[in-house]
Known about the structure:
Oligomer: homodimer
Strand content of chain A: 15-25%
Shape of chain A: globular
CATH architecture of the largest domain in chain A: 3-Layer(aba) Sandwich
Largest interface: A-B, 60 and 60 residues
Amino acid sequence: MKKLINAPDAVVADALAGLAVAHPSLSVDVENRVVLRAQRASRGKVGLVSGGGSGHEPLHAGFVGYGMLDAACPGEVFTSPVPDQMLAAARAVDGGAGVLQIVKNYTGDVLNFQMAAELAADDGIEVGSVLVNDDVAVEDSLYTAGRRGTGATVFVEKIAGALAEQGAALAEVTAIAEEVNARTRSFGIALGPAVTPASGKPGFALGDTEIEVGVGIHGEPGRRRDAMAPAAQLVHAALDAINDDMPLSGDVLVMVNGLGGTPLIELYVAYGEVHRQLADKGVRIARNLVGNYITSLEMPGFSLTVCRLTDRLTELWDAPVETPALRWGR
Amino acid sequence: MKKLINAPDAVVADALAGLAVAHPSLSVDVENRVVLRAQRASRGKVGLVSGGGSGHEPLHAGFVGYGMLDAACPGEVFTSPVPDQMLAAARAVDGGAGVLQIVKNYTGDVLNFQMAAELAADDGIEVGSVLVNDDVAVEDSLYTAGRRGTGATVFVEKIAGALAEQGAALAEVTAIAEEVNARTRSFGIALGPAVTPASGKPGFALGDTEIEVGVGIHGEPGRRRDAMAPAAQLVHAALDAINDDMPLSGDVLVMVNGLGGTPLIELYVAYGEVHRQLADKGVRIARNLVGNYITSLEMPGFSLTVCRLTDRLTELWDAPVETPALRWGR
């Protein structure tokens, strides 16, 4: 294993130490593993907390900042954070208007966020929760009952974050987060595996011309192994899976996301295909992201995420955001 | 070879087609391979043109926009663009105040930009040129006489772009570009090779525990093959090489750049080390970038770029920028 790390068990702490000194806009508690905004939101704003296993950067810590998250709780690589982190985050960001937990649907994350919510409630903090489960590839998976939560998380964090910034109440912020999740679907394809620092070995094995269609962000199996094919066909497979589950029409927000080991030039090739194939269906991409936003360490491959927009969602998407990984319009 | 492409000879055109529909802020001439700002700069502004082989994205097209480049000319993967592209770019962006070419020191790029400059001069366009040659790893290399141009390009494009936006004359913009290059040094380390679409094969071979110390952005050999080591040691080797060439002191701008296949979490580990080791030397990182800015397709590894700042350079670095890959403060 060749990784740019000091030691497998120091990766998360070392990366948080680097994050802390790289971004003055963040306040990083390296020991307790909570990433906060350096400049806290004003009292009365709903606090947004997310978190999950590390190895998906920039998710979630890269999305802490004005217009998006108030706090992120990073676990070990591909491992849920613990309730103590989530409770510390809730306490730190509650400004009297309550806290929304944004939870990707993995069993460990779900249980730990639930426990943290109960502990926070004991403290008198009002807690809402949204479960992100947008990955149409499979029902139930290696670490999940139901569908996995993947790319929609970025959209939920951005759009709920914008509404929270406007001073909306917890029930409204929770409702819009649920709406974004309900209107969003994702599908991923791996061209190869990732290597976790702890194992030092590829998470799965693929032949020289083999791909994993419907892969999860921890390398969970998808729908099938298939033969490598041109980008147009891979995009078609992903779009088909999404469209079968949620027929697409009107204006959409699209993310072509790199899983970590795919060059940006290839992501633009894929985005061009998505645009062309959606145009053929009469679907217009009104907004887009192309890049590495929710990764799986150095996994080569991509995921496609599509959200059926409404005017309101578009407006909230366009609202100013200022985080390490997403920034515009302020 | 598993790549997210349609065909090796279509990669650049397909990616430009994707870039065109992804970014309304860009005007992309896919056929002639020139990327311009959709909203042209006002007359009287010096036009900034750069370009080079594709495969280093987001460089250069991702840096076209307010406060940075006016035009980028992408060549085939790891291959210089041709003078016609550069001439078309110069004609498109000349607003009467002349054009600055930002040229990374590779023989093909240098010759072609020179020819384009002569052709543009025949058209009555005043052309300045800055040669970026910041990579301290080796004198002369596979495609270069003298030192290779790497990470400093990002700094030159940003800082010269900011000065041009303020309405400075061509001589001043050229001078600051040269100053940034003179005050900046880089050093890269590869943990593995990249695969060009045309060859379909790794550009070089490394053993399971071997690294290339001082690698170029096309996989050119560095100073030596060495054994894989912890991040702290790799950062130390890179910093030492830079410091030996240009003793560091005072305030610096640092980029920890991913070569394409290294997870962001690892880049933050490396950045933490850079910060600690520079602090030990009494050097303060006043500004930083951590991420994939000048890549080598999917190469695993990183490069470190350090610029000795002045107040003026810091001010220009902080000036508003609005491009697909770098955006702040407007």
